[in-house]
Amino acid sequence: MFLSQYKERLSTLKRHYALFCEPLLPTGYPDVIVVSYNPKYFESWNYERSNLTIIDLKVLHHLYFVQGSSSDDIENYLGIDSTTLFRVLERLLDSSMIRRTKKRWIPRSLKSGYGVTNIQAIEAKVSDWHGAFQQASINRWFASESCVLSPVQSPSSKVMNKAKKIGVGIYSLSTGTPVRTVQKPIRGCLPSSYASWMLNEWIGRRLFQTGGMC
């Protein structure tokens, strides 16, 4: 019921979005992830891009985080051996995600490859506020917005204060009532980790395979 109502809400906003139910991520299996994206940033996708691996995305995200780095520094920071790193950098070069400047590897502009505009992770833990907030906090590692879904119509002030403190939003949905936003989440920046890139790549590969249909 929540998903059908949420989809209807998204359709009224006329946004491009992808919905993932319990996807496998480094943090586990989040209940629901809704990813909004701008399709124009995927138009330059190439075949080599679809071959990127998780370790490639780890290196790519690191390069964006530090705004470029030498091979030695990448090896030392991420603990990658030189042979593996050579193959990683080769794949990133072939996919046009990085370029070489003297002895440094520089990432391309985010607009050339990152089309995700928002990642909202939603945890449905019924009445287990502790478990919900714990997982929602973990989800902020990759999501720009993290929320919990509960059947409780009016959460206590203690629950509300806890949610506000950790920047988590609350959706309320009980039988026979429409979904309601009790508290909005604090929105963070993207990409916040290599898992943010994983979601971007899943969407890009799907668009590439289907000719623009996600």
Question: Helicity level, as a percent range?
Answer: 25-40%
Shape: globular
What share of the residues does DSSP label as strand, in percent? 15-25%
* Integer count of domains: 2
* Adjacency order of strands in the biggest sheet: 1-2-5-6-7-8
Number of helices: 7
CATH topology assignment of the largest domain: Trna Endonuclease, Chain: A, domain 1
> What CATH architecture of the largest domain do you see?
3-Layer(aba) Sandwich
CATH class of the largest domain: Alpha Beta
What letter string, H or E per element, gives the SSE order?
HEEHHHEEEHEHEEH
The secondary structure category is alpha/beta
Total DSSP E strands = 8
* Main sheet summary: 6 strands, mixed
pLDDT below 50 for ≥5 consecutive residues: which ranges?
none
Give the radius of gyration. 19 Å
Mean pLDDT, to the nearest integer, reads: 93
Distance between the termini: 22 Å
Quaternary arrangement of the chains shown? single chain
